[in-house]
Amino acid sequence: MRRLIILIVILAAAAAALYYSGRHKQEARVGPEAVLNALAETERELSRMPAAVTRMSDEEEIRTGNALAERYSAQYGQGDALMQDYVATVGRKVAAHARRKFDYKFHYVPDETLVNAFALPGGHVFIGQGMIRLMQTEDELASVLGHEVEHIDNYHCVERYQLKARVHGLPLAELLVLPIELFQAGYNKEQELEADRDGTYLAVLAGYSPQGAIHLFETFQRLHRQYVLKAESPDQELSQVAIAGIEGYFRSHPLPEERVNQLERIIAAKKWASVPEKALRVRPESAQKIAGNQ
Amino acid sequence: MEYVLLFFFGWMVVCLPAIIVTAVANGRRRRETAELNDKITSLTRQFEALERRIRVDAAHVAEATPAVGAVPAMKISEQETRAAVRPGVSPTAEHKQPAPQEPAPWVSAPPPPPPSAAPAPSVPSLAAQTHPQPKPVDVGGIPMTPPQRPVPTAEPPRTVAPPPPPPKAPAMPVPIPPPAVNAPPPPVAKTPERITPIAASGSVPQPPMSGMSVEEKLGTNWLPKVGIAIVVIGVGFLVAAKWGAFAAWLRVVILYLGGLAVLVGGIFAERKERYQTLGRALIGGGWAVTVLVTYGLKHAPFMAILSSNALDLLLLLAVIAVMVWHTLKYDSQLVTGASFLLGFAAITLNPDPPYNLLAGALLVTGMTIIVLRRRWFELEIFGILASYLNHFYWLYSIFGLQETRAPFPHHTVSMLLMIAYWAVFRCSYVWRKIEDREEESVSTIAGLLNPLLFLAVMKYQSFHPEWAFYALLGLGAMEFVFGQLPVSRRRVAPFRVLSSLGAALMVAAVPFKYSGNSLEMLWLAGGEAFLLAGIFTRERLFRGFGLILSSLVALYVMAARITPLLQEVMSDQPHHHVQLGIVLAVIAAVLYANANIIGRRWHDLFAEELEYQSLRTLSFAASAFAVCAVYALAANNVIAIVLALLVFALSLLGRQFSIVDLTYQAHWIAVAAFVQTIMTGRTLEASWNNVPERVLAFVPVAALLYLSSRYVRLSDTLNKAVFSSAYAWAATSLLAILIWFQSPDWSMTLLWIALGLALSLVGDALKRGDLKWQSLALVLLSSVFALRISLAPTTLFVLHLTYRLISVSLTAAGIYLLARWSPRTEIRPVYSVLGTVLLTVLAFQETPEPWISVAWIGLALLLAAAARFWNDRALLWQTHTLSLLAAAWTLYASFAPQYRGSRAQLVSVGITAGSLYLLNWISNIAEIIGDERISQAYSWAGSLLLSWLIWYQLPAIDVSLVWGIFGLALFLIGEWKSWSFLRLQAYVALACSFGHIFYANFNVLRTPGAAPPEVVTVVPLVGIYFFIYWQLHGKKSMVSALENRFRIDDLLACLGTATLAALARFELPPDAVPIGYAALVIATLLAARFTRLQIFVYQALAVLGIAAFRVSMNNFYHLHETFGSSLSSAVWTILLLGAGVPICLSIRRNAAQTFSGPRWAALLAERCEQPMFFVPFGLMAVLLALKVDAGMITLAWGAEAVVVFMLALWAKERSFRLAGLILLLFCAAKIILWDVWQVSDLTARYLTLIGVGSLILVVSYLISRNREALREYL
Fold first, then answer.
1. C-alpha span between B303 and A221 (Å, rounded)
2. Conformational region of residue A104, where left means phi above 0, alpha means psi within -120 to 50, and beta covers everything else
3. Counting Cβ atoms within 10 Å, is residue B476 exposed (0-12), middle (13-18) or buried (19+)?
4. pLDDT band at B939 (very low <50, low <70, confident <90, very high)
5. How is residue B431 annotated by DSSP?
6. Residue A34: its chain B contacts at CB < 8 A?
7. What phi, psi does A284 have (nearest 5°)?
8. How would you classify the pairing of strands A117-120 and A124-128?
9. Using the beta-carbon criterion (under 8 Å), do A45 and B1114 form an inter-chain contact?
10. Average pLDDT over residues B924-932
């Protein structure tokens, strides 16, 4: 009898759960992302100790980063000095509160197809013209730069290759031929969320509004839905070429909704005051909309 | 005021251990004195009663036995003697362990001997010896007995009896031998001189260390030493530092008083057996402080009140002399050794020649005298080290001052002093009495250490390298002469050691004089000379020297000559060296001659195992030299052939002369030949008279190996059949490799099949099974390569036939044919399987995709027909496999997007399905195989399709739950009908439901709100898993063997817990995940406690590991983050895990069950409180290290250790207490090794040292005090 009662309870609970699920439609994508994220996180946890043991010195990191940055900058030359200065000014302001006291250098890449920002070891942060064009305010710019600074600050950048380099005893010269795409590809979910949290905090400490980060992620969210999830019409498919950077961004980063959720929770928990956002004081030259609905 | 405060503080810190020990010991002593008096009274009564009884017994003996003469018949054991002469200083220990410590021979007296006319004369003597005890004196208000004087050696010798039986059964008299008047006295283990000091010390021997627990050893033995060492180091810093504004003389007074206080405290504590070690440590520490202060009188900058080095040295020596005199009273080698250590250290720190040299000599002499008198041979080793190293340090400082290694003023004195050291220690070594092997071993170490250190230090101070030859020769001669002295020969060991040492030194002198010559040949000649001399004089020592020299030559040549040759060979460099080759060949020949001619001719001289084995080893070394000679002399392309010839020759000679070692050597050379053939064959591309050179290289080697195989088979070696086969295998391998090198891909497999055919025929004719096995290997090889050919692109050969079709189909046919000569009947199916696999792959490659399954099912039909025709079970199984493959391929290919709804899909799936049903009917599988599982496969297919349908029809987050319900339904039906296959399908469905939640439910972005649908649909699954676990666990007898074997019930319980863990992992905030895990640990432990199910204990342990990993690798790395709650989560997790310890203890104490599973896991589960304690213990230590300021870590750990120790006392768990103690010791080590050097404030440094050392002493005292209570917890 007891067995029958328990069985009925279980089946009733299951039926109720199915009914509840039917009433509260939840969009679910069957995929390995959750498992992969968990695996990536576990892998990172497993590598924490080796990474700490084989950590590069700051001098080595700066030397490597300088060489990589020099190689990458050489492809684009010195264009739009005004924008370069603007990015550097905002970046230095944001990086002033970083834990690792590097001489952070912020590079503006005058490439409208580069809808991305990335960091190199040793304090170099690059941001593409395509990314800045998605922004409306300086606060958004500060949040992106803060995010990238935190990738450096939290050793995400250098850990990308240091363990392998140490284990295999690679000389420094071999690290310098690493493709820059390695650093553009983004990090695992936990690292990205960590950089979001700390990066936004850097921006807030520098006097920017945390809403800038939320607005930017909302822009990403819109683009993500429009071009990555539902790129069905031919014109949208054509836009995929220009948006390839964003796709790369979304391939490894957490979903924008999740990032927005996290920031909203932090803002509520920390009770950050609502600071009015400042419009971008300088805009990229030859502005060309790459997104139809901007 | 400052003086007074500092003095008071220093006094308190330094004397704290002594004060505590003294105060507490006084209290205890007062209590125990009353008990002692009672016991002494009681013992006295017993003693008097025994005495009366002895008199009565003796009177009976005297009546029954005639007078036996002058020798007293009473036997008195050594222990009895000690008991008799020792006052009752420590009755507590005697009371606690009466049996082994204080045997009472009179209580368990032997049966009364025949009556005697007169009492035995020994009784009065015993009484006389027992009664004159020293009068007790009053120490600190407590009546104490002063140390005994040595027993006068002038007493008439007494017969010493074997130890009396233990007094556990006093009523049962144990027979002992009658008084042996005429019997020889048994050997006395210890001389009276050795007994006397122990008795004289007035102390009770410590309980045997082996009987003590680790904790007790640690607390009562090691902690006092560690603590006092730390205190002394701290005082050392104190001596060197400036503290307060005291005058120098006042500092001296304060420190002297401190040292004396420690010394007095130690003397006082040492009198109690319980605190004996602690007391001795304090005595050592007190003396150390006194010596340090005395040294500082001249050398410490802030307390120097003397200006003369000589005076300071004199004072030091005086203090050390008193110290040595005092420590000798305790008869402790360790304490006296420590005193001498301080003496040597004082001399080292006082470099004022010639006083320091003179003092060193005096110390060495004094110590040697003590060594010889007390037989403290271990102390001599320390003395040798101290003397030479001290001298070395002095020389080092002199050279440092001179800034160059140049002659110095006291060079001659130094040299003479060194020689004096050597002579003193050598005389001590030769003229000593040894009683057992252990003493001899220690003496041998001293005997070897002396010349080695002497030579090393002499070398350091020498300036004439050309004298080295004479010095070595002279020293060697002296050692040799010492070895030949009669006193050395009597003890044997010095004769061997010194003779060998002398000979070695004299031989070693030669290279110093004649360096640059061909040493190996010279030494070889010398070795041969020694060997031959040893043979002709029949002196074993010389033969030994000869063999040793030969071995040295071999080692030298291997290191110096062969290594470069091997490097050249390995790096493909030219390695043709005629001279070296000849040298190696000569050495090989000589060694072979020694081993196989001399060794066989005079085999009686080499009968001893060591020599016999040495000869064998040299024979093997000879084979190595021979091979190296071949490499050095022969051209590259013939090396393998020459090696093969060598193999042939060795195997032939080994067989002919029954020398098994030669055959064994042939084995490894055969390996070398084999490898060399392949290495050479890689690069041989040319031809000689249209015959490829590769063929010329491979074929002779293979032929020689086939021939050697025969002689190996006929030899007397072990495993000869195996090795013989190995030779044949190697030869066949070479031929197979040759085919691989020489023939095109498509015909290679055909040639291998042909070779296999030939081997099978020969093997069949010669009855050689191994040849058939080689044929099988070739078949396997052909199959693999045919498979590779099948998978590679191909070209048309003729008509519509491709190379692939011809090659693979012919190979498959050959394989089917070779099945006839299979080495064993039972492996014949291997051939048909290989043929079928090849044809299956061929069909896959040659047929369009949707029709592949049709081709396979057609082949399956043919196989089924053949199976029916030959009644072949293997062919039938191949049919089933192929059918299954066809079905799977249908599922895979026909449901692919491009074929959905196509005619091809319809027809191919239709034909496949129809053929499957047809096969089921034609082959009548169940009747032939007798296994119902074949028919059950249809059920599996139905379930598979249904699951597929659910997946396609329902929303993703509902799929897992519906699969779970589906599994539950299958299980209930299977249980109802007792269909195990249906239950198995249920388990698969449940496993799939578990896996699917990770891909659908946990992949959903977290929904705000209390009950997100993706979580709600997961929770009922936990109930389903545990429900089925409950059903299975309760009906274990009903489940199938498969379910039992895979422990399905436990797996389902694990699924339930894993689902909960996954919910915690994916649905809780990242920082709080470990709290979820820890809560799960507690939940599973509670479940284990109340249900008494083992699985929950195992699950708790597994989740404990996961929680620990998560905390340590995630939370600990985010402790400094601005956001998140990593710290609080980590603390909560650790506390929660710690809360599991009482539950585990309850489980252990309430459920005395045996755990199943692997031994280590069962052990962990039985003692689950151990991991449950040590994990949070370790985590807390790491957390403290990460979060607490660097200077406070040690303190925090100390606090944790104390808390753990206290909790452990409450829990009565020894391992927990040990953990606390070890952490405390680690804190001490950290302070010494790290904190002291990192703390910049000098005052803080020495105060830390003294304080921590004192604390350790206090802990030691507490452990000593509670020793009995701790033993009860063991």
1. 78
2. beta
3. buried
4. low
5. S
6. 998-999, 1002-1003, 1066
7. -60, 145
8. antiparallel
9. yes
10. 58
B1123 close contact with A: CB closer than 8 A? yes
A30 contacts in chain B (CB < 8 Å): 956, 999-1000, 1003
Report the pLDDT averaged over residues A137-160. 90
Q: Which of residues 24-53 of A touch B (CB under 8 A)?
A: 24-35, 38, 41, 45-46, 48-49
Per-residue confidence at A204, pLDDT binned at 50, 70, 90? very high
Q: What is the pTM of this model?
A: 0.50
The pLDDT tens digits of the residues spanning B743-799 come to: 887 788 888 998 899 888 888 887 878 888 999 999 998 988 888 887 777 666 666
User: Above pLDDT 70, what percent of chain B?
Assistant: 73
CA–CA separation, A64 and B155 (whole Å): 89
Q: Which of B958, B998, B1006 lies nearest to residue A21, judging by beta carbons?
A: B958
Pairwise CB contact (< 8 Å): A29 & B956: yes
**Measured distance CA(B374)–CA(B327) in Å, rounded:** 13
- State phi, psi for B1073 to the nearest 5 degrees: -55, -45
For B961, the closest of A7, A14, A269 (CB atoms) is A14
| Distances, alpha carbon B347 to alpha carbons B363, B386, B391, B401, B821, in Å | 10, 11, 10, 18, 88
If you search the block for the tokens 């419009």, which residue do you land on?
A279
* Residue A292 contacts B, CB cutoff 8 Å: no
Residue B972 reports pLDDT greater than 70: yes
Interface contact flag, A26 B964, Cβ < 8 Å: no
Structure tokens at B956: 């993703």
The region of weakest confidence among A228-237, B529-538, B725-734, B889-898 is A228-237
Is the C-alpha dihedral spanning B91, B95, B98, B101 positive or negative? Answer: negative
Which of B306-310, B473-477, B634-638, B1155-1159 tops mean pLDDT?
B473-477
Is the pLDDT reported for residue B1109 higher than 90? yes
For residue B808, pLDDT beyond 50: yes
Q: Do A14 and B1014 touch (CB under 8 A)?
A: no
Answer whether residue B103 shows pLDDT above 60: no
Q: Does B921 touch chain A (CB under 8 A)?
A: no
B-chain residues within 8 Å CB-CB of A25? Answer: 955
Query: For residue B274, what pLDDT band results from cuts at 50, 70 and 90?
Result: confident
Is the confidence metric ipTM above 0.95 for this complex? no
Residue in A13, A26, A190 closest to B1020 by CB: A13
**Residue in the block written with tokens 């968990």:** A38
Return the minimum-mean-pLDDT range out of A249-263, B126-140, B718-732, B897-911. Answer: B126-140
What is each CA distance from B683 to A282, B748, B990, in whole angstroms?
Answer: 70, 20, 59
More confident residue, B271 or B926: B271
What SS3 state is found at B1175? Answer: helix
Please state, in angstroms and rounded to a whole number, the distance separating the CA atoms of residues B163 and B1085: 55
Q: Is B415 in CB contact (< 8 Å) with chain A?
A: no
**DSSP three-state, residue B1263:** helix
Residue B997: its H or E element: helix B980-999
Beta-strand relationship, A124-128 and A105-109:
parallel
CA separation (Å) from B339 to A158, B142, B781, B890? 56, 29, 77, 90
Any A CB within 8 A of B1019 CB:
yes
Any residues with CB less than 8 A from the CB of B655 and at least 6 apart, and which? B663, B711, B712, B714, B715
- Predicted pLDDT of residue B912: 66
Instruction: State residue B302 phi and psi, 5-degree precision.
Output: -100, 5
Work out the minimum CA distance from A265 to partner chain B, whole angstroms. Answer: 11
In angstroms, what CA-CA distances link B635 with B631, B695, B813, B1055, B1087?
8, 17, 44, 68, 78
Question: B 966-985 residues with CB below 8 A of A?
Answer: 968
